């Protein structure tokens, strides 16, 4: 089993454990709700249902993402992570709306809470477990470059904030007997949950739409500037797509026009291997070789070039903007 398959298997096992623990935490919150009659705890329990659904969606997406590419999916199945992440974000927003709605109902009905101490103890335990699980999920997601694990981790940690808000409101109610405080805190954290859900949805949409990632392009251009060869006259029309934990890199490399095909291909392979060797992710490359033009002489650093038509004037430092521009580099653009 290769490293990529092993990582996928580990991610799947981890997400399965998240789903199982999510079910147990949901049951614990339901018990706390039945004991206390707290609408805030009930809202938190309903938010846990979203955790469970999201966890199983994550399992399914990790299963699909692990499948090799085929005739119908030449780039693989990795983009399913963006779809399930978007669904999870939408569910988070929906949970926030439920929390706010239930809190308003609680305010209107003036509910009286019972056995608050038991509720505080049970809900506090679920908060600790949720946070630890969320932190581990987010950390593993960053290590494995898994959007599913990262969004799941953010969701669980956001749920922890909500649960702590419930605990705080229960503590205040326990000592003051001012029951509407419980509902007010629930409304505030419901708004926070909606904001977190929006960010998850926004991130998933950017992946589905292949939105440009300036940070990736910035890191790539900075790295290549340090290892750039004079014969690599310019790098343009660079695009990076994310497919699950994989990346797809398109770019045009401008080389001296008089290079033979074998020599030009060797230069391109050298650049590809340089990027692949220094990346922590699997990358599929699609490089196109362009020949230099007369205006390229002004930025070309090849010394003693017998085909030079203009004097060298200035070196163009690669950055996230010029390596992504469509045209070859020149002093005019």
UniProtKB/TrEMBL annotation:
User: Coiled coil: which residue ranges?
Assistant: none
Q: Does the keyword Transmembrane apply?
A: yes
Signal peptide range:
none
Q: Where would you find this protein in the cell? A: Membrane
Residue stretches spanning the membrane? 18-36, 48-65, 86-106, 118-136, 156-175, 181-201
Which Gene Ontology terms cover its molecular function?
cadmium ion transmembrane transporter activity; ferrous iron transmembrane transporter activity; zinc efflux antiporter activity
Answer whether the UniProt record assigns the keyword Transport to this protein.
Answer: yes
| Domain Cation efflux protein transmembrane, chain residue ranges per copy | 20-209
Tell me, in one coarse class, where this protein mainly resides: membrane
| Alphabetically ordered keywords of this record | Membrane, Transmembrane, Transmembrane helix, Transport
Which InterPro entries does the record associate with it? Cation_efflux (IPR002524), Cation_efflux_CTD_sf (IPR036837), Cation_efflux_TM (IPR058533), Cation_efflux_TMD_sf (IPR027469), CDF_Transporter (IPR050291)
Give the CC-aspect GO terms: plasma membrane
Q: Which GO biological process categories is it annotated with?
A: intracellular zinc ion homeostasis
Pfam families cross-referenced by the UniProt entry: Cation_efflux
For membrane topology, the record states: Multi-pass membrane protein
UniProt lists the family membership as follows: Belongs to the cation diffusion facilitator (CDF) transporter (TC 2.A.4) family.
Please state what the protein is called: Cation diffusion facilitator family transporter
Biological classification of the source: Bacteria, Pseudomonadati, Bacteroidota, Flavobacteriia, Flavobacteriales
């Amino acid at each position: 089993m290769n490293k990529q398959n092993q990582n996928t298997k580990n991610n799947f096992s981890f997400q399965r454990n998240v789903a199982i623990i999510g079910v147990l935490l949901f049951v614990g919150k339901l018990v706390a709700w039945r004991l206390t009659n707290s609408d805030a705890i009930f809202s938190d329990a309903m938010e846990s249902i979203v955790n469970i659904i999201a966890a199983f969606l994550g399992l399914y997406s990790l299963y699909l993402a692990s499948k090799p590419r085929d005739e119908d999916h030449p780039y693989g199945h990795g983009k399913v992570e963006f779809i399930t992440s978007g669904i999870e974000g939408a569910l988070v927003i929906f949970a926030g709306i439920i929390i706010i709605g239930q809190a308003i109902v609680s305010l209107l009905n003036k509910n009286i809470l019972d056995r608050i101490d038991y509720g505080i103890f049970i809900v506090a335990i679920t908060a600790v477990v949720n946070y630890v699980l969320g932190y581990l999920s987010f950390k593993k997601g960053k290590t494995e470059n898994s959007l599913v694990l990262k969004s799941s981790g953010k969701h669980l940690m956001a749920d922890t904030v909500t649960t702590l808000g419930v605990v705080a409101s229960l503590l205040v109610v326990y000592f003051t007997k001012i029951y509407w405080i419980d509902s007010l805190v629930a409304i505030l954290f419901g708004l926070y949950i909606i904001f977190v859900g929006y960010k998850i949805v926004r991130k998933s949409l950017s992946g589905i739409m292949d939105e440009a990632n300036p940070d990736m392009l910035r890191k790539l251009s900075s790295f290549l500037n340090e290892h750039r060869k004079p014969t690599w006259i310019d790098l343009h029309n660079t695009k990076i797509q994310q497919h699950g934990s994989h990346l797809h890199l398109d770019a045009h490399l401008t080389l001296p026009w008089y290079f033979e095909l074998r020599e030009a291909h060797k230069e391109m392979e050298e650049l590809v291997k340089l990027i692949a060797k220094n990346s922590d992710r699997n990358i599929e490359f699609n490089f196109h070789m362009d020949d230099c033009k007369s205006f390229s002489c002004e930025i070309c650093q090849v010394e003693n070039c017998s085909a030079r038509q203009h004097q060298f004037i200035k070196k163009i430092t690669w950055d996230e903007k010029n390596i992504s521009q469509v045209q070859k580099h020149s002093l005019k653009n």
